[in-house]
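STRUCTURE:
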C-alpha cells in the first residue's frame, strides 16, 4: 500500500461561503475503476460499533457530502457521514484512549472484486476526523451476518495499515493486495468521523453463478464488464451505461456535449470474457431532448482483432428501450457503441454467454484470486 497524496492535520474552521473551497483532494490513479462499494451494486454498511453522532449508512451515499452549518440535533452537530462519540480513557488518572482503542464499521461490497484503491473522505470533518485509519478485507461466501464476519476463524487481510489522515480531505491509498474481497472492516483510530468511503477495483464474478445464469448481460458492471474508454464524459460518466437497473433520472445515464463538427461519440467496453452476444438492448430512458439520434454497434475478438459491425446504424427514439435480437451470435471480447451525432444513452445491455475458452479463463482467475 502507498498513499498517492498525503493529507494530515486539521483543516481551518468553517469560515462561511463554499464549504468545499478549502477541501483537499488529488487525482487518484485508480479513480476510473469501478466503485465496488457502490450502493447501486448492492453494497451496504452492515454494522458499526458506534454511530452516536451520524449514521454509518452515510458512508456509501453516492453524492458528495453536504454541510449545513445551522443543522443541529439533540446529540449535537448533524454531519453527513459516519461519526462516533469521543473516546475516553479508563480513569481520571488515565483520561486518554489507549493506543489500541478504535471504532469500526463493516462494509459489504456490492460485488466481489480485487481492490486497487481506497478513498477515505473526511469532507467537512475539520477538527473531528480520526487521527488515523486502517482498512482490512475478507472473502466470505454467501450473506454472512456481522457476528459471522467477526468470528475468530474469519481471516482478515490488511489493505491499508494504520495511517494518519487529514481533516476535510480525500485521503487516497493505492492497494497492492491481489486477492478477491467481499467485505471490508474500516477502522478509525481512536474515534471521529468519516464522510464517504470509496473502494475502487475490478469485479471478479463467481463463474459458477454465471454458468447457472446461462444467458446474461455480458457487459454489466456486476458481472465483470468494464468501460475502457469514451469519446466524451462532459455531463456524466460512461460507466453509468452498465449500472444495474434502468436509469431513474437524466444524469443517471451517459450524455455528451453538443458536437459542432461532423464526428460522432462512442464508448468502448470490455466484456466479462470472450463470449457470444445474441441480443442487444439500448435504453434512452429520461433522455428526451438529448438522446442520441442513431446508434451502431461493433464487436472485436481480442485486443488486436478487427472491428465487425454487429448492429447497423439504427434510429433511436427518446426515452425508449430498444431491443434487438441479432441474426447470428457475435463472438467478442470487446464492443464499441457509436452514437450519431451526439447526445446520450442511459443503458447498454449485451445478452449472451461465455465461450468454452472464456468460461475456462474465468474459472482459472477465480481460483487464482482465492475465490
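SEQUENCE:
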Amino acid at each position: 500500500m502507498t498513499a498517492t497524496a498525503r493529507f494530515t492535520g486539521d483543516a481551518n474552521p468553517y469560515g462561511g461561503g463554499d464549504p468545499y473551497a478549502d477541501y483537499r483532494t488529488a487525482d487518484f490513479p485508480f479513480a476510473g475503476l469501478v466503485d465496488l462499494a457502490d450502493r447501486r451494486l448492492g453494497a451496504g454498511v452492515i454494522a458499526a460499533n458506534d454511530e452516536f453522532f451520524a449514521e454509518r449508512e452515510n458512508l456509501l451515499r453516492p453524492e458528495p457530502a453536504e454541510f449545513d452549518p445551522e443543522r443541529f440535533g439533540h446529540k449535537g452537530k448533524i454531519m453527513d457521514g459516519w461519526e462516533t462519540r469521543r473516546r475516553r480513557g479508563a480513569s481520571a488518572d488515565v483520561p486518554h484512549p489507549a493506543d489500541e482503542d478504535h471504532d469500526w464499521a463493516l462494509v459489504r461490497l456490492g460485488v466481489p472484486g480485487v481492490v486497487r484503491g481506497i478513498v477515505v473522505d473526511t469532507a467537512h470533518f475539520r477538527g473531528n476526523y480520526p487521527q488515523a485509519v486502517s482498512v482490512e478485507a475478507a472473502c466470505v461466501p454467501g450473506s454472512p451476518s456481522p457476528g459471522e464476519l467477526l468470528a475468530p476463524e474469519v481471516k482478515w487481510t490488511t489493505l491499508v495499515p494504520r495511517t494518519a489522515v487529514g481533516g476535510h480531505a480525500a485521503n487516497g491509498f493505492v492497494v497492492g493486495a491481489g486477492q478477491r474481497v467481499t467485505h471490508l472492516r474500516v477502522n478509525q483510530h481512536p474515534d471521529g468521523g468519516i464522510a464517504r468511503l470509496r473502494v475502487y477495483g475490478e469485479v471478479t464474478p463467481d463463474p459458477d453463478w454465471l454458468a447457472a445464469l446461462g444467458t446474461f448481460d455480458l457487459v454489466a458492471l456486476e458481472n465483470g464488464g468494464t468501460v475502457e474508454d469514451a469519446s466524451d464524459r462532459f455531463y456524466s460518466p460512461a460507466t453509468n451505461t452498465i449500472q444495474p437497473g434502468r436509469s431513474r433520472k437524466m444524469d443517471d445515464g451517459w450524455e455528451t456535449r453538443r458536437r459542432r463538427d461532423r464526428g460522432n461519440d462512442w464508448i468502448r467496453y470490455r466484456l466479462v470474457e470472450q463470449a457470444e452476444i445474441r441480443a442487444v438492448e439500448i435504453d434512452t430512458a429520461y433522455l428526451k431532448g438529448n438522446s442520441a439520434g442513431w446508434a451502431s454497434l461493433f464487436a472485436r475478438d481480442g485486443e488486436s482483432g478487427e472491428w465487425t459491425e454487429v448492429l447497423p446504424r439504427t434510429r433511436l427514439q427518446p426515452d425508449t428501450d430498444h431491443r434487438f435480437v441479432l441474426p447470428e451470435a457475435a463472438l467478442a471480447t470487446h464492443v464499441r457503441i457509436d452514437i450519431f451525432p451526439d447526445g446520450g444513452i442511459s443503458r447498454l445491455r449485451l445478452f449472451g454467454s461465455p465461450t468454452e475458452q472464456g468460461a475456462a479463463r474465468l474459472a482459472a482467475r477465480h481460483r487464482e484470486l482465492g475465490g
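REMARK: The helical segments are 146-149, 207-213, 356-368.
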